[in-house]
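Changelog note: in this version the structure field was regenerated for every chain. One regenerated record is shown below for reference.
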Amino acid sequence: MFCPACGAPFEPPAAFCGSCGTRLPQASPPSAPAAAPPAQQPEERELLRFGSFGVGITYGRPALFAWTRWNMIEVVLTDRRVCGLQSPFIARMLLSSRRGELAFQVPLADVVAMERLRVAARTAVYLKWREGAAFKEVSIEGGLGCSDHILRLHELLEQLLKARTAPA
């Protein structure tokens, strides 16, 4: 499950988000059946998780001399969003308090552009999305050992985005 405020993953029965401190929704015990319950959205499904070694992110399009955070981000793709989490392993090694913090969160419903790119020996997935009145960008890059993960991320994103734009 994911925190409704920041999108960080958590395991029930956690009461508070380990990333942002928000009180998490609790599963209530079943009660007497009521008249037609409101339609609930199905639970968010994790489709792919990889990183942090060999994975980097750039806030914008990747380039040869762009500032990229390498080996610090774990990428999580669900059926609703793509998130980059501060790697728990690396954060522990660096004694960082930023463990599990969100580096980025891209709701798939807000994506306006997605493409696969090559920069030198790296493969990247570039995403552009609308956040309020502004646009934001992130590139998720894989080094030599992670290109398969990046290609799989691109393939799954392509399917999810086509499904969202297909007529009902």
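Spot check on this record: The domain at 46-165 is CATH 2.30.29.30 (PH-domain like). The two ends are 27 Å apart (CA to CA).
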